[in-house]
Amino acid sequence: MTALPKTCQKKLGLVIDLDTCVGCHACVVNCKEWNTSNYGAPLSDTDAYGANPVGTFLNRVHSYEVTPAEGPAQTVHFPKSCLHCEDAPCVSVCPTGASYKRSEDGIVLVNEDDCMGCGLCAWACPYGARELDALAGVMKKCTLCVDRIYNENIPEEDRVPACVRTCPAGARHFGDLGDPESDVSKLVAARGGVDLMPEMETRPVNKYLPPRKKDELTKGEALAPKSTEPKGFLAWLDKALEAL
Amino acid sequence: MYPAPSVIYFTTLTGLGFGLLAWLGFGYPDVIGKTAFFLYLLGYGFAVGGLFASTYHLANPKNARKAFSQWRTSWLSREAVLSVAALVIVAPHAFAQVFLGGSVPALGWLGAVACIGAVFTTSMIYAQLKTVPSWATPATPLLFLGYAAAGGALFSGQVVMAAILLVFVGIAQLGSWQLGGELFAEAGASLETATGLQGLGSVRQLEPPHSGTNYLLKEMVFQVGRKHAEKLRWIGGGLAFILPVVLLLLLPPHFLTLAIAAGSHVAGVLAIRWLFFAEAKHVVSLYYGK
């Protein structure tokens, strides 16, 4: 079970546009809402209304500041969830067979009936995509909303992961990254999508689109100031204050 | 990494237990009767105690028996299988030595190899993790095997062998401490590669994703240990290697000398194993700007 499939018919995954993400955390909230009430054990919170709330989440949004060699710094909001890696180290370390990668669509899942809560898969993941649920004692991770994407009981437009469905900025895209003709693959090619931590050799399916280059003011482009002397009311105020 | 007492006792005690059982399996020393009973009691006690401690690390131990199933791919599963195999294979040899005054050398040798395998697979649980660069090195299995051999020799009362091994393992541990600090940088992961923003400039955390703590921070971004690392290395190294070697070389080989040397060694190894976890930095800490 914990052997990785040699090939996957599809490589379903997410493409996250760091240029567009506004850091609103709506994907975090909708992910929690959907996944706490559907597939597997709920995503528990401890001391939810107390001084030290701690909870299980499958998706989190970090915020970073990037400073180029020249020019102003830039804020980048950075959503992070399971990248459904092709060489997923979390799967092959699992001793019980609970962790597995599906050969039909490449989704990495946990069979909670087999998980013993040893936490080794979370140690093996470079991205912090797996969190052990404190109450259930089993490992939780992004399922790519496997219970939405194939669900014929919900409207067709809802058959995408909850995070993608809810994103108000359109910063999250879902599709088959194994098909070079898919919208997501074309988007990755057009925008130069990248892998996170390639040196960990996990071959993530999810891709990140780096922020586009911002416009820069070049010298002489700005208009010269038209007026230096105040006029009207401001001129009177200036004079009156001067006279005091 | 969070230095959970369960994994510290697990790795330390199984190392000592399987180390001692391996020596006894190979016939060093070749003992019978009461002495054999006492030594096997120690060996089995340590090994079983360590394995028992490891179950305290499980959040859902009712599924622990399933850990024997994935030996084709998982080092943790291989560790489980070999540990139990070693305990079972050595048993007839131990029984013959304790109660019948004879031995079953073939099973002794086979069991000893399984004991070495159990220690090796234990070390590979950690050495396989690219995400913790200070563990992902051949030094990890070498040191785990070295500790098991030295500790086993000490507990089996082989004074000269124990002294030699303690010196070698002590030097190896010192070397690993000297070189280990650079492994994280050599692995090449940084906040820039973690975010894929290396083309844009240098990256720093502006705001964390959550105001409180979480499983990741508690389990993998543990930093308390680094403050006193230097002092703890001296304490651990002094107790695990220096004091036992001095006692073995200077004092006559009396039971009490061996007992004090062995006790000091165990205390030192526990401290060093605490550092093994507490000092290890996981690449996920980069995402949290640490």
Automatic annotation (TrEMBL), chain A:
The keyword 4Fe-4S applies. Residues 12-42, 72-104, 106-135 form the 4Fe-4S ferredoxin-type domain. The keyword Transcription does not apply. Keywords: 4Fe-4S, Iron, Iron-sulfur, Metal-binding. CDD domains: PsrB. It holds the Pfam family Fer4_11. One of its GO terms (molecular function) is 4 iron, 4 sulfur cluster binding. Residues 205-225 are annotated as: Disordered. This is Fe-S-cluster-containing dehydrogenase component. It comes from Aliiruegeria lutimaris.
Automatic annotation (TrEMBL), chain B:
Keywords: Membrane, Transmembrane, Transmembrane helix. GO terms for molecular function: dimethyl sulfoxide reductase activity. This is DMSO reductase anchor subunit. The chain crosses the membrane at residues 7-26, 38-59, 80-100, 106-129, 141-174, 232-251, 258-277. GO terms for biological process: anaerobic electron transport chain. GO terms for cellular component: dimethyl sulfoxide reductase complex; plasma membrane. Pfam families: DmsC (PF04976). InterPro entries: DmsC. It comes from Aliiruegeria lutimaris. PANTHER family: ANAEROBIC DIMETHYL SULFOXIDE REDUCTASE CHAIN YNFH. It comes from the Bacteria.
